[in-house]
Q: What sequence folds into this?
């Protein structure tokens, strides 16, 4: 079974950086595509970034291109989201998710979810 646990969230000033981590206890982590999503109060959950099973292909939301980087270390069963040049608009609960097939951007296309970690960016 897949169990995802996020960490690394916190409070940061605008322009600062954070790195989120998502650890997976599943036995077949290396076969999953992984994604990051975020949800702010009163808003729908939105796609942030995704990475294919071998890390070769990635996809980013336009709002984070050039600022965020998704990566993975299959030996550690972990996916990361490096967030630079943070803006107040990035404030949200960030979730990692896994799916058994290729890249996808819709929340409904992912099979497993972590509990979320809060990211707050102050101005």
A:
């Amino acid at each position: 079974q897949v169990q995802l646990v996020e960490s690394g969230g916190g409070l940061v000033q605008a322009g600062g950086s954070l790195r989120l981590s998502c650890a997976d206890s599943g036995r077949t982590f290396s076969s999953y595509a992984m994604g990051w999503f975020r949800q702010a109060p009163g808003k729908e959950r939105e796609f942030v970034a995704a990475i294919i099973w071998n890390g070769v292909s990635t996809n980013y939301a336009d709002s984070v291109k050039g600022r965020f980087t998704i990566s993975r270390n299959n030996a550690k069963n972990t996916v990361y989201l490096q967030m630079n040049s943070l803006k107040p608009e990035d404030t949200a609960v960030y979730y990692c998710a896994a799916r058994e097939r290729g890249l996808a951007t819709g929340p409904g296309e992912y099979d497993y979810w972590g509990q979320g970690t809060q990211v707050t960016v102050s101005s």
Remarks:
- The two ends are 40 Å apart (CA to CA).
- The CA atoms of residues 31 and 91 lie 30 Å apart.
